[in-house]
């Protein structure tokens, strides 16, 4: 008998306190808005056991790659609180075999990595989350001598060489987790990630057959050890490879209980094709979308995104939807680590604010129920989509997505049965995704009482929106102010808290021993520390919901001890180059620092001046102060991660902040002074004071002005400053895919590509090594936009354009300034770059938006754009 567990809600989901809500909205409000109807058919069942919305998790935060950058127990407290807030229904937890098995057949279930892994399982067990154990994956260097498939080129991504041993390993781990440690929420098992690609499963030529045999060996070992009924096996975790799913169904259908695939950024209509392709191979077996993602830095759009993925999946018989991914963990590679817009939040060592995805995906994750029945729905118009769920307790939840355009009144009507319960309303649009350190899900915005088994929401605006209407209680949340603060040892900080979607008193507590104290009013008294320490403070409701504040406790000045170093720049993620200065309050003291994570000593590198944080660099600065006759200070640390977003004219690099010192360089150079596209230029020799006076005035009063140096003196200064006009940032050697912002705002299906990218451009970039690309497929287009500052005048835009020659059709591109079409490019099929100049246009002084828009929708078409300039039109 296979186990089927339903995760129990944590105490934070207590009964809704109606008094805290906006007054109930009227059942049928008169309005001139567009009228839309969603009909939920209570007697029509589309699927009986929708597992819910979950996440993918790489459990590295408590391990070396992240802990080495200062991640600590106070950060873990915040991570756990967020897991309990969103309550993922299923978590695909990635697992490396070298965490437990350094030598073949010898298992260490008490290794540091395993202890960290258990803490993740504890958190998911507390949240009522079922676990899909993703066994195998990256192959740590410590096991290369026995694990690898013979002759692989990439050992880190090798398939197992000994499938029998691999089966024993999987069985041993499951026995430890389920039988010895009681993790009864480990219900599902899968292997590797996207084995159809070359990035995670390198093995023999016939990789499909090898993957199927690998799964069979695990299946047989679990049978032999009496564990097979404890877990269901999923696979093959393919992406864009339905032939892999078909192969597994035909050749290992007795092994796989459920099938899984991945999909990113596809259109609502294309999803049906993707589902149907796989369903035709697997019949009625459960099909899971075990990775899905939408990387827009804002939120989803009508064409593709989280709500329409869920609606299409639930109505189409997909068994679960797992978001990529919960949170970032690695921080050492700004271009290739796990932080970014795919995540619900980045690693907390980079800051507490979540991404926009947290608010959107988190709201869906929390309120779409686990193991629910999906009910049939009908919509009155094609600018509305819907799906509906009934959980094991009979609670009803309706998800409605509306397109942007005219404001709408949406009536939700129930047919085939009687419904009397009140529905709580949760609404999401772009305005909700405003990152804040408490990471609070959107609160309830009212209740609906039904009249004749229907209610009408008259508050849906004209923006793209989704609304969740549910009879389940609202999630009680606690907001703390400040969520993050710094205080010297022995000093106090006054914390405040408020309850959202709930009422009652709060209890204050400090997490961990020796971390200070907090009184009943939220006043925290910090402990005395020799080196800085992070402390987590909880404010908890009677029902068990809580919020977490972090306080960084720094060493207080002490007699006989040098004052601890102070950094000029707050830690965290920065889009562009920055500079850090380090000071100490002790006169004559030296500052010694490290960047490798080690504790600095009197022999460490001597600080001599501003440290430049360069693009695509993560720097962990740790410093002490050393003075004659005094004990060295305690250690203070700051982590900085810098991306490659251009904030200077092309060819110029940051050298100094305004009014903070000298922009230093040797010989003659051009220097730009200003910010936000407003610059003054000058040619100087052997440095210049970074002040407005040096440049004859301030081009952007009140702006974050800086100096940028260019060792090459340009022939002429730009008429209009376009950031990243040559598309050299980010400095990818392949492709950097949108959505992203780097000077330009790149939509999905747009980005930057290198001369050696997978697009295989027929000719090199006209300027530098990279160009923009604009791609259309699945009926979706792409675009790039940049808002720049023009002086009043008449101008034209010049650029180069080419088509991808080795694949797809011809792409044509429109050029706009604001809403005015000023140019069009239709490159030929040779792949050669052609020079283009738009028609002239006249603008007033101020901000104007330049846009390049792909216009060819049929098929798969990619065009390239480079070296964009604004010239004065004659």
UniProtKB/TrEMBL annotation:
This is Chitobiase/beta-hexosaminidase C-terminal domain-containing protein. Residues 1-29 form the signal peptide. Transmembrane segments: none annotated. It holds the Pfam family HpiC1-like. It comes from the Bacteria. It comes from Microbacterium jejuense. InterPro entries: GH (IPR017853), GH29D-like_dom (IPR059177), HpiC1 (IPR054720). Residues 571-636 form the GH29D-like beta-sandwich domain.
